[in-house]
Write the C-alpha cells for this entry.
Amino acid sequence: MALKRRDFLLFVGASAGAVALHSCASGNSGLSGSSKKAAPKSSTVGFKPVRGSMPLETDGIELTKQVADYGSYEVVDDLVLPEGFTYDIIGAWGDNIGDSRFGYNNDYLSFIETGKDEGLLTINFEYISGSTWMQTYQQVIGQSLPFDEVKAAVANSKGKINAFALPDSDALKAKIREISKEGLVDQGLGVISIRKTADGKWRRTHSSADRRITGISGLEDDRYLKATGPAVAIFRKQQGQGYIDGLGDRIIGTFQNCAGGTTPWGTVLSAEENVQDQVPEPVYVDGTSFDPEALPFQIDDKTVDGRANVFGLAGNKYGWMVEIDPANPDDYGTKHTWLGRFRHEAVALKAVAGKPLAVYSGCDRRGGHLYKFVSKGTINKPQDKANSQLFSDGMLYAAVFEPDGTGRWIALEPKTSVNPVLPSTVEGNLVPLPKRPEGGIFEVKTDADATSFKEQFATLGDLYEGNETEKQGAILIDAHYAANAAGATTTARPEDTEIAPDGSLYIAFTSGSPGDDGGPDKRIFKGLKGETPWEYGWIVRLVEDGDESAAMTFQWESFAMGGEPAEGGAGFANPDNLEFDANGNLWMVTDISTSKHNQTVTSRVDAEGKPLEQTDIQGIFGNNSIWVLPTSGSNAGNAYLFGIGPMECETTGLFFTPDQKTLFLAVQHPGEQHGMRKDKAAETRKFTLKTTDGKEFVQKRLVPLGSNWPSKGTTDPPKPAVVAIRRLDAEPI
Ligand code: FEO
Ligand code: CA
Ligand code: CA
Ligand code: CA
C-alpha cells in the first residue's frame, strides 16, 4: 500500500484520535512513488508561498515543471517574505536599552499590550556566536576586548583555564573577566516599550520599563534574581558536598535564555537552555554544585564559553524557568524551581479557571524529556497577577510516551520508583544516570547495567540526600538524570511547546539523531518506513485525557513530520518555535544547525553506493525558514513556506499582536559561520534534489558566504535583530 502523506495523516486522525508514529509507519511501504496530481490548494493560508530551495507539494508548481523550475536557485542574504508583506527593524544588537544594550542572539519575543497600538516587547538573548561576535564586537559596540591576548595566553592549555582559581591580582584574570562580563551582558532578557505609528511601523518609545536583565545582574548592583520552590533549601545551604557560592537564595543573572512563554496574567517566562556551556551542569547527591573548575573559561577562534567560571557562579542556579513582569521596572526575575532544572527550551501554560495550572516544557538535548508542572492551588481568574503564586507549590512530572499512542506522567518526587530507561530502546544505546555515591553522572550502555542500577536503588529518594524538602530540591535540580532513572521517555530534542485553541499541546521535536547526551526512543521516533535515526524532526500533538490539566494519562499523535516530500516529509527540517494565529494555523520556524546550511550534496550515495545519512544531506533544505501549517480542514498538516531567513541565521521568537496585524520575529545569528560577508562573496554549489515523486535531479545553487544583514551594506557587520512583519495593505496577517 502506498499512501500519500496526507492520506497517512487522515489515517492517523481516523484511528481513535491518536496513534503513534511507529504504529502508523509500520505496514505501509512508504510514500515515494505515490501518484500526486495537483498540489494542495493554499487558500487557507492567505499568502502565496515563497519559493524555497526544493520542490514542495505546497509550492503551487506542477510536478512536470519541478525539474525545470528548481534547476537553479539563488539564496539571498535577506528576510524573504511573500508578495504583499514587508518587515521593519525594531532593534538590533548594540542598540541602547535602559542603562545597557540590546544583547546578542535574540530569541523568544513576547508582546504585552499596554494600550492601543502600544506595548512592552520582552526579548530573550540566548547566546553569543563566538567567532562572529568576536569579529564584529568592536565595530558594533565601539570598544575593543583583549581577545587575541587571552587566546594566546591559554592556547597551550587547549584554550581552557580555570580563571576562578587565579589570584584577583592576576592580569590575565582581569582580561578574562572583561571578556566574560561583556559576553554575559549580551545574554539574558530585555524589555523595550514600542508603539505603532500611522505609517504602520513600530518604533521604540523608551519608557521607564525599558531595562536589561543580563547574565551578571546582581554582580555589581543589587539586581539579584529571586527563587521559589524546594531548590531554595539547597541554595541556602551553608555547607554541603559541593561548591556553595555564599549568596543563599540570591542569584546572579540569567543566561542562555532561549524560548519562553507568556502567561494570561501578563508576565513572561524565559527558558534557560544550554547553561552547560557556561556552568557545570551535573551536581552532587545533596544537589550542590560542582566546583567552577569543572567548567573552565574557554576561548579559541570559534568559541568564548565558560564565561561564568571567573565569577564563580554556582551551576545549580542555572537551567531554570525565569518569570518576569515586564510592566514592573523593579522586577529582575524569579526562578521557579518547581518547574525543574534542565535545558528548558520553551514553555506552554494551560490556565483554565477553577483548575490547577499546568506548565509544559521540553528539555532540548538529545534524549531530553517532556515535563509538566501541575500547581497545588487552582486558578481563580486567569488574568489575575496573583496566579504567579501557583508556581511555588505543586509537582513536576516527566512524560512516558508509549508506542501505541498513549502516554502517562511520572512524578519526580522522592517516593517514585527507580526504573531506568533501557539503553536498548534508545537510539545510540546510551542513557546517563546519577552516579553514586560520587555525584554527577555515568553512562549506561547495556540493559544489564540499567537493571543492576535498579537493584541498587529502589526510589528516587535513595539517589539524593537531605530531609524530604532537600531531597525534593535535589531531584528538581537534577531533573533530567532523575527522570532517566525514573524511566521517562527519552525524546528527539523537544523544542517549543504550544497550547492550541482546542486545548491540545503541540510539541516540536527538532531532531531524531543521537549524540553524546543520549538519543530518542527508537520505538517511537521513526520515519514512515521505520527509518532511524530520523534527523528531520516531527510536530506531535498531545491531548490530556479528559482535557484535564492535572490528568496523569494522555494520547498523542504525529501532526507533521520533517523531511523531503518524496520520503513523506512535509518539506521542512528541524522544527523549533511554534505559535498559533487567531485562525488556528500553526506557525513554525526551523533550526537547521548553521554548519549544515546549504552544504553541497553532489550525490545521495557514498563511494560504496550506500545512501548518505540524513545529517549529511541537510544542505538541501537551504536556510532556516518560516512555515504555516493549517490544523484543520483538508490541508491540515501541510506546510506552506512563508519566509526564509538571511544567511547562516535562525528565525525565532514568532509572536502575533492581538489584532494579528503584526508578527514579531527575531533573526538570530546571521553570518554565524562566515561572519561578515565581504565583497558580496558567494559560491555556486551543486545539490542532488528529488522531485516530490522521488526523481533525482541536480540544482545549481548560488550561496552567499556570510551576512551583512540587517543594514545590508557591503561592509556592514551581521547583527541579530528583531523585526515586525506586516501586510502592506494593513490587514491582519
Ligand atoms: Fe535554543 Fe533549543 O533552541
Ligand atoms: Ca529554539
Ligand atoms: Ca512558542
Ligand atoms: Ca534550536
Summary: DSSP finds ten helices and 37 strands in the chain. The CA atoms of residues 584 and 632 lie 8 Å apart. The two ends are 40 Å apart (CA to CA).
